[in-house]
Design brief:
Helix 4 runs antiparallel to helix 5. This protein has 5 helices and no strands. It has 102 residues and is an all-alpha fold.
Length: 102
């Protein structure tokens, strides 16, 4: 882990990650209980497995709901939680700071 990067993790970044991880775990639970159990265990212990980290990175990328486009420029993607491109970048950065390749 990169301790310098971890020190730069602020409360706002942590809140974003916590909000999105909660939504991800909820969705994963509905689709793959074993994967959800593994991911939740890793999240609660502070050590996501590489598989769970990659799943989270892929999920947050696929679920970006606020594209920043106007109605004329492109669609607003509906979802259970609002996810901006900046939120996606925050989660990816948080995962990289913990040694995961995303």
């Amino acid at each position: 882990m990169n301790s310098k990067r971890e020190r730069q993790t602020g409360p706002e970044e942590r809140r974003t990650v916590e909000r999105l991880v909660a939504a991800w775990l909820e969705e994963t639970e509905r689709n793959d209980r074993a994967a959800a159990h593994e991911a939740r265990t890793g999240w609660e212990s502070g050590e996501l497995s590489d598989r769970a980290a990659q799943d989270l990175a892929t999920w947050v990328t696929a679920r970006v709901t606020d594209t920043g486009f106007t109605e004329d420029e492109g669609p607003y993607v509906e979802g259970p939680v609002r996810i901006t491109p900046a939120d996606k970048d925050t989660v990816h950065g948080w995962l990289r700071a913990r040694g995961h390749d995303v």
